[in-house]
Amino acid sequence: MVIQYKCPSCGADMEFDAETGKMKCKSCGHAEKAEDMVTTSGEDPDAFLNDYEEFEEETSYDTYGEDAVNQYLCNHCGAVIIAGKDTAATRCEFCGSPVVLGDRLQGELAPTNVIPFKITKEEAEEAFRKWCRHGLLLKSDFKQANRIKSLTGMYVPFWLFDVKSQGEVNAHCIRQRTFEQGDYIITETKHYDVFRKVDIDYQKIPADASEKMNDVMMDKLEPFQYEDMKKFQTPYLAGYLAEKYNYTDKELFPRVQQRVKRYTESYIRSTIIGYKSVQFMRKDLWEYQKNAEYTLLPVWMFCYDYKQAEHNFYMNGQTGKIVGKPPIDAKKVALCFLIASVISYGILALLILLWINLF
User: Fold this and answer.
1) Averaged pLDDT of the chain
2) Segments of the chain assigned E as strands
3) What residues form DSSP beta bridges with 199?
4) Strand 148-181 to strand 184-208: parallel, antiparallel, or no bridges (unpaired)?
5) Is the distance from CB of 237 to CB of 88 less than 8 angstroms?
6) What are phi and psi of 155, to 5 degrees?
7) DSSP states of 81-127 as a string?
8) Distance CA 348, CA 55 (A)
9) Separation between Cα atoms, residue 150 and residue 169, nearest integer Å
10) How many angstroms separate the CA atoms of 249 and 205, rounded?
11) Which tens digit of pLDDT belongs to each residue from 22-64?
12) Residue 292: beta bridge partners?
């Protein structure tokens, strides 16, 4: 099922506009709310989407073969659209019309939520150039940011997890104080058995479900602002790429579980203060998945061509946060280290001279 949106005023293609948050026609400028849009056939494009199943139920099934590639016909020009097995939204290679592949968004593949793009393509490109220029240790020719090979807006599939963390912890803690008593210097040591019991609810912890995306980079794009989250509707995808998930919530939960465990341990540690040393004797912590919602989150992907190598960078399409690993100038790093060393030695020499003069 190919879903495309036509302008009711002039018949041209409409796509989601991040600046206004509405569907917009680039030909005549007509705009409408995404919730009010209908397909070229006049039907509700989301009528076929089934409600999200409770998390205890199976949340995925094999829809396509391992290397399946499907063919679709563009409603605008009639050209054949070749879509990979994970593609859920794309553009016609011949006429450029935005296309949403509805059959890849139905049943258990139907997202529950979406956070629409708020950063436009022009804003993303300008923000990336500024980000490059402000990198003090980056190579000078890289900082010019004039070799952006491609800039792609994509809705990345995520699961948002609600998790309960429970458990008990025992720790051996020590407090010490030193004081003078007559001719003696006394050190007093007190030992404590500390107990903590926790029951914490975590909400909407994101984990990307795409095998193509770098998990570390996707984690660094956080936080997303959930107050902008909408109930999923296909018009939000028009004009952007989108893919269905490769991993179910059950498959991703172990990664989220370890993350929650770190959160809980950090919280417990923050409640045990005022001790010289803390030694944990027992940690019994359990994490339970309460719910998981399939959600599409906006990401701008930059491909930067530098010295015959491609460097990938990512931007949070809602907040504008940029992450990636730019090429560092080793000479600048060495110079900074040298300057820091000179300053450190200078301060040390000054302190020694002051000490000599005092005595």
Assistant:
1) 83
2) 2-3, 14-17, 22-25, 31-32, 70-73, 80-83, 87-91, 98-101, 113-114, 148-181, 184-208, 230-231, 241-243, 277-306, 309-316, 322-324
3) 166
4) antiparallel
5) yes
6) -85, 110
7) EEE-TTEEEEE-TTT--EEEEGGGSSGGG--SEE----S-HHHHHHH
8) 61
9) 50
10) 12
11) 999 988 999 998 888 765 444 455 554 543 333 333 333 334 4
12) 161
Find the distance separating the first CA and the last CA of the chain, reported in whole Å. 88
The pTM (predicted TM-score) of the whole model is 0.80
Q: Which residue has the tokens 């139907």?
A: 110
- The tokens of 348 are what? 């040390």
Closest residue by Cα to residue 198 from 268, 261, 259: 268
In DSSP terms, 99 is beta-bridged to 90
- C-alpha 165, offset from chain centre: 23
Contact 77, 97 (CB under 8 A): yes
Contact 118, 228 (CB under 8 A): yes
What's the pLDDT score for residue 71? Answer: 78
Contact 59, 244 (CB under 8 A): no
The tens digit of pLDDT for each residue in 110-127 reads 999 999 999 999 999 999
Two structure tokens written together for 111: 């997202």
Residue with tokens 């010490």: 176
CA distances (Å), origin 201, targets 137, 162, 295: 41, 7, 20
Measure the CA–CA gap between 162 and 203, rounded to whole angstroms: 4
Number of H helices, E strands in the chain: 4, 16
The SS3 assignment for 331 reads helix
> Encoding tokens for residue 220?
């660094």
Residue 174 forms beta bridges with which residues? 191, 277
- Cα 56 to its chain centre, rounded Å, is 25
Label the pairing between strands 98-101 and 2-3. Answer: antiparallel
Residue 99 has pLDDT above 70, yes or no: yes
Q: Which residue has the tokens 């890289």?
A: 142
